[in-house]
Amino acid sequence: MLIVAKMVKQKSLFIKILTVSASLLILSACSTTHSPKLVASCAQALDKATQEYATAESLGFRDTSKMSKASSLIAAAKIKQQEDKYPNCINKVQRASAYIRQAQVSTANLKP
Question: Cα-flanking dihedrals φ and ψ of residue 90, to 5°?
C-alpha cells in the first residue's frame, strides 16, 4: 500500500510539472509575436541607418569616436533584429543616427 501511495503521489507531481511546463511554453510562444508594423519599422530604420553610415564614411566624416559608436549601435541593432527584439532594434538605430548627425556637425565645424 505504501508503495502504491508513493507512486500515485509521484504521478500527481509529474502531471503538475507537465501542466506548468506546457503553460509556460504556450505563454512564451505568445509573447514572441510582434506586429508586422514593428518588424517593418525595425528593418526600414536599420536600412536607413546603414545607408547614412555608408554615406558619412564616404564623405570622410572625421569624428571617429561618434562614427565608431554609430557602427557599434548598428551592429547591435542587427543582433536585436535577429533576436526579434524590435523595440530595442529601433532604439539602437535611432541612437546610431544621432551619432552620425553629430559626426556631420563636428566635421562641418572643423572645416576651414
Answer: -65, -45
d(CA 68, CA 35): 31
**CB environment 26-46: b (16+ within 10 A), e (fewer):** eeeeeeeeeeeeeeebbeebb
Contact 58, 77 (CB under 8 A): no
Contact (Cβ atoms closer than 8 angstroms) between residue 81 and residue 91? no
**49, 101 in Cβ contact below 8 A?**
no
The answer on pLDDT for 20 being more than 70 is: no
Residue 17 pLDDT: 66
Whether the predicted pLDDT of 47 surpasses 70 = yes
DSSP class of residue 83? Answer: T
Q: Residues 35, 83: contact at Cβ < 8 Å?
A: no
Output the nine-digit C-alpha cell for 74.
548598428
pLDDT of residue 53: 94
Of the pLDDT bands very low, low, confident and very high (cuts 50, 70, 90), residue 61 is: confident
